[in-house]
Amino acid sequence: MKNLSKYRAIGLLVMLLALTSCGNSKSDTSENKEANSEMEKEHSEGEAEEVMLTTKQFEALQMQIDTLQMRNMSGYVKANGQLEVPPQNEATITTVVGANVVSINVIEGDKVNKGQTVAYLSHPNIIQKQTDYLNAYSNSQFLKKEYERQKTLYDAGVGSGANFQKSEAEYQASRSMVKGLEAQLQQLSISAAGVRNGTIYQRVSLRSPIEGFVQKVEIKTGQYVDPQTDLMEIVDTQHVHADLMVFEKDVYKVKEGQKVTFNVQSIPGKELTAEIYSVGKTFEQNPKAIHVHADIENKKGNLIPGMYIQGRIQTDNTKTLAMPESAIAADGNRFFVFSSEKEDDNWAFIPYEIIKGTQDGDWIAITFLTEQKLNAKYAFNNAYYLMAEMKKGESEEDGH
Question: Which of 46, 89, 242, 291 is the most exposed place for a label (fewest CB within 10 A)?
């Protein structure tokens, strides 16, 4: 019996030891799992997503690296319109008498100076005006002498007052006629002095009243033209300006002195700038908008009145952090920029989430969601390429 009790006690002890060992083993396993989980979590949190580029890749992509910049970001009003010139800088050439076109000295596109002859006209009416003037002038000279003779007699008390008054009236009337005919000859660019000296001009010249370029020629050689018919148009393109239409809802934002940026088809890829010098005070009804005139600051290329323009009027300025549009990449509804740091012969790019703000041309105002290092450098282009590379790296890790 004693031996049996002894064996039972030993068996019970063995079972207790086994249970204790089993419990410790389970506890160790649970603790190990928790420890491993914490280590994995810490590793996951500490590991930053990044894109690595070799120097050769960096140069091939022509990466642009720079520090963050504060920039004046403008709110703007979109406005379309066309190029125009002020009324005083365009002219229509006409004739004051009906005549035939003898010759045309210019073609469309030619530059002309003020007073330059652009065509010659001829007609019997032109010759008749010169002979009328010559007859009137000769008669006036005769009447002048008669007036002076009657005045001398009247002053001496031997002449009739009635004769003196009659001669004076006839002389003054003849002078008025001469001056009227002289004015007509001047409109025809005919020298009255030349006619008085006996020259009769067979043709007269049409002259440009302003300096500029010939825009239209609406006559042909030999053609008869009526008085006040439009024969040519001259435009001084040095004074071409932007004429923009601003809709009613935006009128209160626009004022003189604001800057305008715009594009024209004749200069592709080039942005021109202008400054508003006049804001209209009356509405056009269809569409309901006002005219805004802006003086072009960097006149380059062939700017021709009538060209269609697309512009933006800068209405306010706020200085804020901004980056080029090419520096920002989208990932769903989130936006990122990439910091840049050189590591030996490679370049590391790390994404940082931002919120986009106002866009002004190719620049976009940004706000970081995390604090950034001072003087950190960022990629200013190829952001979409960097994002694609980062996504490709994540896909490869998931597949592995």
Answer: 46
27/9 Cα distance (integer angstroms): 27
- The residues, ordered by sequence, that sit 6+ positions from 85 with a Cβ below 8 Å of its Cβ are 235, 236, 237, 239, 240, 241, 305
Sequential DSSP letters for 219-281: --TT-EE-TT---EEEE-GGG-EEEEEEEGGGGGG--TT-EEEEEETTSTT--EEEEEEEE-S
Residue 161 CB partners (closer than 8 Å, separation 6+): 154
Tokens standing for residue 31: 């603790």
Residue-level pLDDT at 298? 78
Q: What H or E segment, with its residue span, contains residue 338?
A: strand 334-343
Whether the CA torsion 202, 208, 209, 211 is positive or negative: it is: negative
Residues 187-195 have a mean pLDDT of 89
- More confident: 320 or 6: 320
Whether 27 has a pLDDT exceeding 50, the answer reads no
Q: What is the CA radius of gyration of the chain?
A: 46
Question: How many Å apart are CA 29 and CA 10, to the nearest integer?
Answer: 29
Angle at alpha carbon of residue 317, lines to 315 and 320, rounded to 5°: 145
Cα separation, 293 vs 262, whole angstroms: 13
DSSP string, 64-92: -EEE-EEEEEEEEEEEEEEEE--GGGEEE
DSSP annotation of 301? S
**What pLDDT band is residue 362 in, cutting at 50, 70 and 90?**
confident
> Considering the chain, what is the average pLDDT of its residues?
83
| pLDDT higher than threshold 80 for residue 324 | yes
Give bridge partners of residue 93 from the DSSP assignment.
Answer: 232
3-state secondary structure of 172: helix
CB-CB neighbours of 261 under 10 Å: 17
Contact of 136 with 177, CB cutoff 8 Å: yes
Q: What are phi and psi of 78, to 5 degrees?
A: -75, 135
Predicted TM-score (pTM) of this structure: 0.55
Q: CB-based contacts of 280: which residues, under 8 Å, 6+ apart?
A: 290, 291, 292, 293
